[in-house]
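Shipment paperwork, digital attachment
Item: protein structure file
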Amino acid sequence: MFTLDQIDEIHDTHGKATTLPAYLNALREIGVQESVSFVTDGHTEHRGADGYVVSTPPAHEKFAIAEVSDRAMLAEALEEKDYVKMSKALADSGIEKWIFDTRALTIAYLDRAGNSLLEEDVSGRQPG
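Attachment content:
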């Protein structure tokens, strides 16, 4: 199964918005089926077959997730280039987590109730 070191190496190589398809494909190649990032503290659970999970440590201070989600605020949050600022803005917009699906090449942003507020197909993204 995959390791956190493998995931870190892939992130260092392909962890940019312009290389998302390559990032997700590389994760899929090592057995990651989905990566679930939790906005509250920035930790991510990389999930594989048969319930296998590798988790990262928290990436930032804890943020409270807004009770009510706001799609307009979500769109603004996604424009932020700084990861911690983006995470805070996502929390303020009511996003609890986002999920990278390595098979479908999608990113879904979910609120506290598990509702998807936005799902993006990243398979056609071009570098640049």
